[in-house]
């Protein structure tokens, strides 16, 4: 299927690895010009070189902290116009809410709620004026089924979800601008492996055993891949997805047990 977005410009945050990189790769494969961001310059340049080798859209790399005004300004300056915005940031650490102070909460909100809103604010009116825009926020399956030790993520990402629900149904929908959220479950990423390894060590378990136990708890009996996550993102960014907005797409291999 031709997604009809070749030649568009996309800003994909935190895209040097994992799910962000999967989204950037899927868009480049469709002929989209992509501006990639990440904090670590070496990792970002390596990922950008890999995507340039696809020989499709132009790929630009901007190293910096997207949660800061300076980082956002640099990323936006590198993108002639933002037709597609993929918001992404690493999740805050797990823990007991009794141990978190104001600083921990503010940091989580800055990364997982306020930064996406600032980037939407900077780009959405231009999208509406041009008559095309796709905004995809990578949040978490924990928004749908909160996890007790991920309170910082539950709170910050749920706040973004509520904001998006209102924005998506405002006047921008009539201007062919959509806003949706992708909710990943267990995907085979460095973050998942580190989290499982840390949990296994704390419980005195073997890391491989912990991986297998987690995998067997998923009806699909496997972890998701960055490639299939990226494909879902690319479709939400397509011309064909113009009638999908304000939605929370859960990609978890069937792990969520509810009907709604």
What does this entry show, briefly?
By secondary structure, this protein is α/β, with parallel strands linked by helices. Helices cover 44% and strands 14% of the residues. It is globular.
Can you give a write-up of this model?
Belongs to the short-chain dehydrogenases/reductases (SDR) family. This is 3-oxoacyl-ACP reductase. The protein is of the alpha/beta class and 260 residues long. The protein has two domains: 9-187 and 224-251, Rossmann fold, CATH 3.40.50; 188-223, no CATH class. The protein is built from eight helices and seven strands. Strands 3-2-1-4-5-6-7 form a seven-stranded parallel β-sheet, with helices on both faces.
Overall geometry comes to: globular
Count of distinct strands? 7
Based on CA atoms alone, the radius of gyration comes out at 18 Å
In DSSP terms (H or I, runs of 4 or more residues), the helix count works out at 8
Protein name: 3-oxoacyl-ACP reductase
Family: Belongs to the short-chain dehydrogenases/reductases (SDR) family.
InterPro entries: NAD(P)-bd_dom_sf, SDR, SDR_fam
Notable characteristics:
7 strands, SDR_fam, 7-stranded parallel sheet, 3-oxoacyl-ACP reductase, Rossmann fold, SDR, NAD(P)-bd_dom_sf, single chain, alpha/beta, 260 residues, 8 helices
